[in-house]
From TrEMBL:
Subcellular location: Cell membrane
Protease recorded as keyword: no
Protein's membrane topology: Multi-pass membrane protein
Key words, A-Z: Cell membrane, Membrane, Transmembrane, Transmembrane helix, Transport
InterPro entries reported in the protein's UniProt record: ABC_BtuC-like, ABC_transptr_permease_BtuC
GO cellular component: plasma membrane
GO biological process entries: siderophore-iron import into cell
Classification lineage: Bacteria, Bacillati, Actinomycetota, Actinomycetes, Actinomycetales
GO molecular function, one term: transmembrane transporter activity
Transmembrane segments: 76-99, 137-155, 167-186, 192-211, 218-235, 264-284, 312-337, 349-370, 379-401
Region entry Disordered, spans: 1-20
Similarity field: Belongs to the binding-protein-dependent transport system permease family. FecCD subfamily.
Entry protein name: Putative ferric enterobactin transport system permease protein FepG
Main location: membrane
Organism: Actinomyces graevenitzii F0530
């Protein structure tokens, strides 16, 4: 009976075109080799090898530099590193041009003498460089970096390319707090800034509570934020319409977003906040990268999904509230900076460093255009970023539509 079953099995396998393998050690070895060969052939058919320029481009996009320091290691993408260096060069060039040009031109030698205190100093040049232009440029850099970082955090948390503080109501909440301080309280500039911080934090807390249902999901966060932003816009308009003329003018000027009131005191507070938040940003980089793979897979990889979202939201809200408190709302930088970084570096996921550099570069370039485009008339930097951001948003939506998204 046993022999009969073996013969029947052999006949079935022969008809299927499969050679029976004995359940011995040599048979298992043959089976392993056969399985490996089939897997290799399937992989070769499924993923054909690129040739020529395509292969070179694929290899270049995957090149990395690995830095090791004891038990710690840091992997840097070559293309991302090139993008970072290019942004630093562009940022430096535009910053020097902003400091050197204007109603009172200052040569590079005078700029160096004013900043570093050597060479032949000019009192007028020293005043314009150290008290007017340098704090303005430095504030533009830090505000832009804060906005770029917050945009990258919000887009990573929401998983939505439109998930920026401009869209989901956090920036508008800061504006509401500032308008309440200006119109209803008649607060000083410090009080207006504190009102902006309180408004941004309050809006974030309200969005978080309304979007919570057994945790936070990206789509729910964006939808609730858009709804709250609409309510805040209506409230802001009501406050301005019912305000006295002088307060309404002050509120409208603040809402435009300007660097005219930049000074070293506010710059020091903003720099201190960025330094304090840097360790939190470093700790969030890896969990946010796994979060982009989906909640279930991120949880399987050991990421605490809800804790990561809550921490990233807290850091992002702090950044955007501080930036808005210093300059007023500067639109679309938080939205555009992470997108531009992803397109330039060609790498998915979260790139906080380059997003901060891109945000700083965008604000510095926008401020240069605002000061020099219609000189001697100066525009608010928020007007320039809103124009640039609106054009970018239209282009982004057209590209998404062509992709069928």
């Amino acid at each position: 009976m046993k022999n009969l079953n073996q013969n029947e099995t052999k006949g079935e396998t022969s008809r299927l075109g499969v050679e029976p393998v004995a359940t011995s050690q040599s048979g298992l070895a043959k089976l392993g080799k056969a399985t490996t060969q089939v897997a290799l052939e399937s992989a070769a058919q499924a993923v054909p090898l690129a040739t020529g320029k395509a292969a070179q481009a694929a290899l270049k996009s995957r090149r990395h530099i690995l830095l090791r320091l004891g038990p710690y290691s840091l992997r840097l993408g070559v293309r991302s590193l090139v993008v970072a260096l290019a942004l630093l060069v562009l940022l430096t060039v535009v910053a020097v041009a902003s400091i050197s040009t204007g109603a009172y031109p200052v040569s590079p030698a005078q700029v160096s003498a004013a900043i570093f205190g050597y060479g032949q100093e000019d009192n007028y040049a020293r005043y314009f460089v150290t008290q007017v232009r340098a704090p303005r440029i430095a504030t533009a850099m830090l505000v832009g970096a804060a906005l770029g970082l917050s945009g990258a955090l919000f887009q990573a948390v929401s998983g939505n390319p439109l998930g920026s503080p401009d869209i989901i109501g956090f920036t508008t909440g800061s504006a509401t707090g500032a308008l309440v301080a200006i119109i209803l309280v008649g607060a000083s500039p410090l009080g207006v800034s504190l009102g902006a911080i309180a408004g941004g934090v309050g809006a974030a807390a309200l969005v978080y509570m309304l979007a919570w249902k057994n945790g936070i999901t990206g789509n729910r966060l964006v939808l609730v934020g858009i709804g709250l932003a609409a309510v805040e816009h209506a409230l802001n308009k009501l406050l301005i319409v019912r305000a006295p003329l002088a307060n309404a003018q002050q509120a409208a000027q603040w809402q435009a977003g300007s660097l005219n009131d930049a000074n070293w005191a506010w710059l020091a507070w903003l720099a201190l906040a960025l330094v304090v938040l840097t360790p939190a940003l470093a700790c969030l980089t890896r969990p946010l990268s796994t979060l982009a793979l989906g909640d279930e897979l991120a949880h399987g990889l050991g990421t605490r999904v809800q804790a990561t979202r809550s921490g990233a939201l807290a850091v992002g809200v702090t950044l955007v509230a501080l930036a808005t408190a210093v300059t007023g709302p500067i639109a679309f930088v938080a939205l555009a900076a992470p997108h531009l970084v992803r397109r330039a570096s060609g790498a998915p996921g979260v790139n906080l460093t380059n997003s901060g550099l891109m945000g700083a570069t965008l604000v510095v370039v926008a401020d240069f255009v605002a000061q020099r485009a219609l000189a001697p008339t100066q525009l608010a930097v928020g007007v320039v970023t809103a124009t640039m951001g609106g054009l970018y948003l239209v282009l982004f939506l057209v590209l998404q539509w062509r992709k069928g998204i």
